[in-house]
Amino acid sequence: MIKLSEKWVKELLSKSETGMGYQVVSIVTKNGNRFDQAVILQACLITGIKGLNDIPFKEDDISQIILTHDKWDFNAERLMKEREKKEKDV
What predicted TM-score, i.e. pTM, was given to this entire model? Predict the structure, then answer.
């Protein structure tokens, strides 16, 4: 997870939520990489990116956050990953 600074929090608070308490965004880094379908909770915490286990950048690397509202069932994806991990551990 990445806790966002006041700069990003202020910008995200001025935008609408995708759902209750969260926004789905694309994040562009300073080196030009784009990460679509990132989830930000309460306009201040990047909690995950669709298809990735980890967040491959730091807050200082972010050049742009674009609100997209591109929904996916991230809870189902999380549960599936947990099940796969349990099966590997058995």
Answer: 0.79
